[in-house]
Amino acid sequence: MNFLKRYWRVALGMVVIAALIIAPMYLNRYGLFILSQWAVMTIAAMGLNLTLGYAGQVSLAQGAFVGIGAYAAAIITANGLPLIAGLGVAIVLCFAIGWILGYPALRVQHHYLAFVTLAFSTLAFLVFRNESWLTNGIYGISNIPRPTILGYPTNRPLPFYYVCLGSLALVSLATWWLIRSPWGRAFVALRENPVRALSLGIDTRRYTLMAFAIGSALGGVAGTLYAPLTQYIDPVPFNLSLSLDLLMMVIVGGSGFFFGPFLGAMIAVLLPEWLRFTQGYYLMIYAVAVILLLIYSPSGILGILDRYLTERRTKAASALRAVAKSGLEPAP
Amino acid sequence: MSNLLDLLIAGLATGAIYAIVAVGFTLLWQTSQTINFAQGEFVMLPAFLMLAAMHAGAPFWLAIILGMLLSMLLLGLGFKMLLVDPMLRHGVLPLAIATMALAIGLKEAVKQFFSAEASPFPSIVPAGDISILGRQVALQSVGVLALAIAAVAGLTALLNRTSIGHQMQATAQNPTVARIIGIPVERMILLTFLINAFLVALASLLITPIYLAKFSSGEVLGQAAFIAAIVGGFNQVRGAIAGGLLIGVVDNLAAAYVSTQYRAAVPMVLLILIILLRPQGLLGRAEERTV
User: Between chain A and chain B, how many beta carbons pairs sit less than 8 Å apart?
Assistant: First the structure.
């Protein structure tokens, strides 16, 4: 039975991956843009899920890290260097800033990280807007080139969509490996019971900083894809509301579930597009839908599924117990 | 020097409004662990309720009363019953996220049903200057400051001098014990939501004539109130008042003396410094560690 379940799961995964590869061939330019945006936002949300869902730290700065990544990519490719250099700079920069930013928050209790990151978000936005010598201020940076991969240019929307999808796949694999590694288990231990984790010899400070820094670096990765995707960046998309949106994606999808960010980003990016026919009302409907979902299931969409599966498993277990018990009873 | 005095008075006037909003924010946190990310939008909405009443033909004073009552009904009772009550038992974070969604919903609703443009809003303080110590000071600043001080003084008196105030404080400090000694905890929590709704409506009435009524005006305000509450001390009403006044003054002085580009950065740096040096806030008590 267990074998069968795994078989179904693999089959479902195959179908989804095949759909993500084949279906876009029939999409128009705009559809491809939205799907690429979904992939990019999923990467950023996965980073936040690592920080929030696995290590239990609330960050309100993920949008700022996406911004830092985007500006790093834009500035470096504008100077003629390849995108991969921008990616390296973005990862190192976001990791370092995340690490430093975590320090003041860790001196005190955990929810202060949320406050510090909130302040950082605003500061980062001001730097993007005001340091014109670097970021070109409110005019933004335009004509950001798309990369050439293995000699194959990705200027058209479809190839670049595959770049985004491929990056998403790589990041997913890396994250999957990370949360199953001893580090990932240490992150979960931090979330569940920091005092116990400390008494078991886990250096809680280091691991908390690490979780936050890795999550931030993934935000930077998303940013390096965002810049060539839109080919134009200005400070506005990276203000506090992007951080809040990303946080909403993680919670709505189901924080602490591996596939939570995929679903959350899908709802945040695709649902407003599907609701476009309602014209001005779509964001209102989106807001109401999020509130209703959270009232019904505070652990997000995957929380509903998880609850359903646990219930079924409990029922199956108690049925087994009943059978076992009746077998033990002496025959009359 | 004279310039400094003007800046101080203007800063205190905005700061007093921040303080009112921050106090409401702190009250909700204390009595029901609600971090209200829609607090700024709560300030934005009553002005539009009042404008709607005036469009329907009501005189200004009646519109104010209607706006206050409606905002207490919607942002006090409605907010508590429809959003906070069903979500509270699930912990702080999902509720905070739900209020973020609420903020988006309120903004979009006003944009869709009212206007995406900024609308002028009549001031309850007459325009003109007043002479204080031989200096001309805008009547608006003085009036706003006076009204805000009156509101804060009234609230402090309510909390510290009346039986209901003591019951509310007991509810905030320890709901279980409060319930045991016979305090109607549920009613007290509802009361704090109504007080918050009243405070945001008052803030709306005071600040909208200065910044115009716009669907997005809550963003900056909510953030300022949030920072004021943390800087002053998350668990203290008087901390929130001090924090609000401080942020208002610092913001105004920074605009004049640091740079207009980075004025918004100064309160943020202040916030980070406070968290580094005095994490419980200027007037707050250190929270007990929960294990």
Answer: 100
Interface test with B, best of A101, A103, A295, A297 (most B CBs within 10 A): A295
Residue A39 lies in a domain: yes
Instruction: Report chain A's C-alpha Rg in angstroms.
Output: 22
Find, in chain B, the residue whose alpha carbon is nearest to that of A119.
B268
Q: How much is the average pLDDT of A167-190?
A: 90
pLDDT at A1: 47
Instruction: Calculate the alpha carbon distances from B111 to A37, B104, B118 in Å.
Output: 26, 11, 10
| Closest by Cβ to B264, choosing from A120, A122, A287 | A122
Domain count, chain A: 1
Q: How far is CA A127 from CA A73, A226, A323, B218, B262, in A?
A: 16, 19, 67, 22, 9
Optimal mutation site among A294, A296, A297, A304, interface B, most CBs of chain B within 10 A: A294
Task: Name every chain B residue with its beta carbon within 8 A of the beta carbon of A109.
Answer: 279, 287, 289
The token pair at B54 is 């005036």
CB-count burial class (<10 Å; 0-12, 13-18, 19+) for A145: middle
pLDDT of residue B279: 73
Which residue range(s) make up the domain with A39?
28-238
Please tell me the predicted confidence (pLDDT) of residue A2: 57
Cβ neighbours around A45 below 10 Å, total: 33
pLDDT band, residue B127 (cuts 50/70/90): confident
Q: Cα(B97)–Cα(B105) distance, rounded to whole angstroms?
A: 13
A129 contacts chain B (CB < 8 A): yes
Q: Do A161 and A219 contact (CB within 8 A), yes or no?
A: no
Chain B residues within 8 A of A252 when measuring between CB atoms: 97
Q: How far apart are CA A146 and CA A3, in angstroms?
A: 44
Instruction: Return the amino acid letter for A31.
Output: G
Q: Hey, are the CB atoms on A252 and B97 less than 8 Å from each other?
A: yes
CA distance B121 to B101: 27
Residue B86 and residue A252: Cβ atoms within 8 Å? no
pTM of the model: 0.87
**A255 in a structural domain:** no
- ipTM of this predicted structure: 0.85
Distance CA B35, CA B58 (A): 35
Task: Tell me: pLDDT of A323 over 60.
Answer: yes
Q: Are A215 and A50 in contact (CB under 8 A)?
A: yes
| Chain A nearest-CA residue for B263 | A126
Chain A residues close to B291, C-beta within 8 Å:
195
Q: In angstroms, rounded to a whole number, what is the distance separating the alpha carbons of residues A170 and B248?
A: 47
What would the pLDDT profile of B145-183 be if each residue is shown by its tens digit?
Answer: 888 889 988 988 998 899 999 998 888 888 889 999 999
Coil, strand or helix: which one is A53? helix
